[in-house]
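CORE FACILITY INTAKE
Project code: CF-77B
Contact: R.S. (postdoc)
Sample description: multi-component assembly, two entities in total
Requested service: structural model of the whole complex
Turnaround: standard
Below are the sequence entries exactly as provided by the requester. Do not edit them.
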Amino acid sequence: MLIDGGAYRQGGENSMVGGCYQKLYACENVRTEQRQYYSNSGPSVAFRAPGYVEGTFALEQAMDELARRLDLDPFELRERNYTRVDQKKNLPYSSPDALQRCYAAARQVFGWPRRPDAKGEDSAEEDSSRRRGIGMAASVWQGGGANPPASAQVSMASDGTVTVHTGTQDIGTGTRTVLAQIAAGVLCLPLDHIQVHLGDTGMELHSPSSAGSATLPTVGPAVHGAATALRQQLLEAAAEELDCAVDSLELERAVIRGPEKSLSLAELAGKVQPDTLRGQFTYSNKPDEKSLSTFAVQCAEVEVDTVTGEITVRRLVCAPDCGALVNPMLAESQIIGGVTQGTGFALCEGRVSDSESGLVLNANLEDYLIPTLLDIPSIEHASVELPDRFENSLGVKGLGEPPMIATAPAIANAVHDALGVRLRDLPMDRRSLIDALRGEGATR
Amino acid sequence: MRSFSYKRAADIEELTAGLGQGQRLLAGGTDLLPLLKTDIDQAAQVLDIKESGLPAQIEETIRGIEIGSLVTLSDIVDSPILRKRFPLLHQAAQQSATAQIRNRATLGGNLLQRPRCWYFRNPRSHCWLKGGGSCPAIAGRHEHHAIFEDSPCRAVHPSDLAACLLALGALVSLRSSSGRRELPLSDFFAAPDRSRRYETQLRQDELLSLVRIPRQADTLQSVYLKAMDRKAWAFALVGVAVVLTRRDDVISGVRIVATGVANVPRRLERSEEALAGTRGESQDVDAAVREASAGVAALPGNAYKIDLLERLLGKALRDLL
């Protein structure tokens, strides 16, 4: 694989384009070679699942071609070549069933292989020029697991309010909300009792960078550990106040119940010396005898106008493996965002540069087309709830990057199903479809 | 972006009196402001014409339908009379830009907007249209550029409405301090040449005050088809406007204009000739489609536009006939 790295190294650009070839299917003989060259162009930098998005577009179309040659359902071909081990590291996957569950969930929610009418069902005309097709693709991502160390502190003030302190940031993925949820869950408090203080490096609470879909699986267990430590302090303080044994106490809905008396957390906090209710935890390392990867499977239905070359994506289903679900609405938002970005990558986005001058010609939102609402169909989340307890105590995995990876090949495979033409370049714009239709001598 | 003076014109006399001194006229600003911000246009004076009294209505008169230059694209989308009489104008306006832009953008500005060519719009590219020696798109990236070689420049005119108005045989009224003249759009638009690196015949001291669509037969049929790289908010890769009338099943008049294929909207006269006088049967449509690309000189990266032009024209004709 050749990678155009631009004229300057920026870091993060030398992505693993061959990663999906090494990890997604059982194959004893895999060799990938990747070279980066310098070009008269702007620098390239990492972008949401770097390398895997690009590599998977090729691999998953090749798998589709192979399935057709073998006259096999594309799911079946993939399931026959299933791997429970990471062949590159020669280690078992921490969730060896995850991809299997993704296949099942995507297939079920999409209704695979329920095929829409080959001709558009909206059109009663016999000579309709519209063709519909379905396609699927799978993906693996090397991220989504924890990237320790990470530290967190959860403290309770004298008025009973709880603050979570971490050094991480919320880059739009909902970190603030899910960290509050984790602390609230441990402390049995309503969510609005928890404040989250992000990005505080002054307290020397280390967090990894917001990369590799690692924030939740890394910082989540740290917050969980810190909240658990605070909970223990609260129980011990309550045991003293109520004059009973710690293990005779129950914490429920902001109230600690003893065998005889009860005490609300706010009351307790007021009785304890200020600034002493503070739990800290450092998640320092994780076991390395298994390989963490995150998987996803996507299905697409498209309609293509064989006259005008217009592609309309009608449906997208995404089944990502994200471990335990902390917040279904945020998970769905990540999926909608990732699949939308994947659809842009598939249909309209792409950097255009002039090879002689090196100028990037479409560095604006007029020429660089991101999908509009009209370009995006309904995006369905086929939920796979499979906590990965080996990975971390919460069983959670990152979901920032995986939903974007398999979108473009799923759409390309659906276009092939509709028309019998294979689009091997991105974006699959009007020009590439018209050129393909001409090359195949398809109906005009 | 450079600093410029800003003034509002209170009436047309004040407006025309000051023309010709290099100031730019601001109405919707959807093209002018980006040009100023990127220094492509380095005007020192901006004259706001929104309250100048230039025509801002769509009116039916004895001479046809007149659309003021300050009419917005949204006004055109919403106009019942245009929608009924000339569906292609409704279709073209509705497929232009976004609702927000259509609310600001005026017809005058739409017809006079500069090319969206990514070399022309890039402040670091000194292209032919900006006074440079040659058009960098020819050896560079030209997938959105002209397939006809009518000029040293390969940029295409971006307006959807221009193609439709040209197909309707529209005329533009131009005003200056010394008077007014009316020009057919087909003469108004002209591919840039060495003495005039600009897409129209508008003089420095003139402004565009209104567009007139001459009276048409009641049986007129029309359609505008546009191909773009997303469902909305993109300029046409190719757009095709067809206006035709039939008498006793025979095509008595037809005008076909394509946009996105040449420096200015281009009439496909040979396709028109192939259809005129026929019954518009399948072989007639095929003949018209075959003639659409007569004389093209596509570049290696934009030959798909020939195909797209033929496909859209075939579909437009079949939809109408």
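Facility notes:
- Chain A has a mean pLDDT of 92.
- The longest strand of chain A covers residues 130-141.
Invoice: internal transfer
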